[in-house]
Specification:
Helices cover 95% and strands 0% of the residues. With 132 residues, the protein is mostly helical. It has one domain.
Length: 132
């Protein structure tokens, strides 16, 4: 047995002896001991309950704080998303105008090609008729 274990054993025996002396000197009955034990347990339960309530309150405060932080972050993200939506709308408008411009340019180019062919054919016909 280690020295530490021996000391604890002696202290425990001493505590038992002192408790027996107190019971004999004060004429404490077994029922009194039970009541004292129950009162001690109740006091300990109350202490534990108070600590638990404090921890629950602290946890609730942390949750509230995190909720506020999360709410502000969500609000900032909503703002960014709104800005992006605005930019996308502008890009959509530009794409639509670009599509209209391409279509217009395509028609103009086709018209130019047809006009060039018509002019070329007319010139060739005129040359062929004069030469012939």
């Amino acid at each position: 047995m280690s020295e530490e274990e021996l000391i604890f054993q002696l202290l425990e025996e001493d505590r038992k002896v002192r408790t027996e002396q107190i019971v004999e000197d004060r004429k404490i009955t077994a029922e009194d001991c039970l009541v004292i034990g129950i009162l001690r347990l109740n006091r300990r339960i109350d202490e534990i309950n108070e600590r638990l309530n404090r921890r629950i309150d602290e946890t609730n405060e942390r949750i509230d704080e995190l909720g506020k932080n999360l709410g502000s972050r969500i609000d900032r993200l909503d703002g960014r998303i709104d800005k992006l939506d605005g930019r996308i709308d502008k890009l959509d408008g530009r794409v639509d105008r670009l599509g209209e411009n391409l279509s217009s340019n395509f028609r103009w180019t086709v018209g130019l090609i047809i006009g060039t062919w018509a002019t070329t054919v007319t010139i060739l016909i005129t040359i062929l008729l004069q030469g012939g």
